[in-house]
Amino acid sequence: MAKAFEHSMQPGKDKFLVTDNVPEKFLEAFELMNFEVVYYPEISNESLLEIIEQFHGIVINSNIFMTRELIDKADRLKYILRPGSGLDNVNVAYAESKDILVLNSPEANKDAVAEHAIGLLINMLNFIPRAWEQVRNFQWVREENKGTEIKGKVIGIIGYGNTGQAFALKMQGFEADMYAYDKYKSGFSTSFVRESSMEEIQRRADIITVHLPLNEETNYFINDSFINKCKKPFYLLNTSRGKIVNTAALLKGVKSGKILGAALDVLENEKLSTYSVEEKALITELLDTGKVLITPHIAGWTKEAREKIFFTVFDKFKSWVDIHGQSK
Predict the structure, then answer these.
(1) Amino acid 2: pLDDT
(2) What is the pLDDT of residues 285-307, one digit of tens each?
(3) Which residue range forms the structural domain that includes residue 87?
(4) Looking at 56, 116, 211, 241, which residue is catalytic?
(5) Active site residue 279
(6) Catalytic: 76?
(7) Which pTM was predicted?
(8) Which of 200, 203, 297, 307 is catalytic?
(9) What's the CATH code of the domain at 82?
């Protein structure tokens, strides 16, 4: 069985540190590969820096940041596994320059994220959370909750990777016109989605949904400039990463009417207890518009996806080891 961290471990087997809350069978799978598994799901980045040099592999979640400093300290490290999609907390280029294998599992929760995005869209367009709250308070309000149909709308999908494609596939039955843009893909038009340019999406879209990884190129991708270039007022969906949308620009767009509504599963800062007075005021004002719906980064957090993200990354890792072995 995997054990909690001990400062003096027996030499011999390669050691894997698991810093995420994972299923027991996930831990057992590494032990069956003859790794010594140490389970430390509550470890901080500061504590990790003190012990990382003992480990040959690590499983991380979004709270652990594999920085250049941490990678330099981890002189035995061969493997970084990140169950889930985002790698914005890993200095991937530097890790790979050190001959460290970096794996994640972005395909594992694509269906969960796509379904959640559709749920957000329907709830936003039809004021479902507000209407539900009104009924709870014994208010029967119809006219103010008049919704908007998806049918016939133009949907712009920015980023056509795993989740972008899953979203488009599931949206077929809504009879919308779908246009997709991906800077790094081409030739992907189908019977239900048309490959497009960014300019065409900004010209035509009634609804824009973002499915991008967070990196230097996409940080604040949705900003004042992007919003101002859109020719029509539009609805915005973001289920990717919070810092892809500049929150201040979003508020400005909502208040001006350029953004008709926004549904977000992510925020720039998701640690609400750490908010400054300014951050709290910004989010409060955003929510007070009545046009913004926010969920707490749960789009990819279904029971099914939670299992799949771990075992998908494990299967990738095992396949690599089966071919290359555990030694560098």
Answers:
(1) 53
(2) 999 999 999 999 999 999 999 99
(3) 15-108+304-324
(4) 241
(5) yes
(6) no
(7) 0.89
(8) 297
(9) 3.40.50.720
C-alpha pair distances (Å), 215 with each of 86, 93, 219 = 10, 12, 6
Number of Cβ within 10 Å of residue 39's Cβ equals 21
Q: Over the stretch 5-43, which tens digit does the pLDDT of each residue have?
A: 454 455 568 999 999 899 999 999 999 999 999 999 999
Q: How many domains does the chain have?
A: 2
Q: Is 203 a catalytic residue?
A: no
Residue in the structure block whose two tokens are 């694509």: 110
Q: Which residues pair with 156 in a beta bridge?
A: 179, 208
Quickly count: other Cβ atoms within 10 Å of residue 291's Cβ. Answer: 18
Q: 139 and 51, same structural domain?
A: no
228 CB-near residues (< 8 Å, 6+ apart)? 258
Residue 80 in this model has a pLDDT that exceeds 90: yes
| DSSP letter (8 states) at residue 9 | P
Q: Which of 195, 279, 285, 307 is catalytic?
A: 279
Q: Are 213 and 146 members of one domain? A: yes
**Quick one: tokens of 78?**
């061969």
Do 163 and 40 fall into the same domain? Answer: no
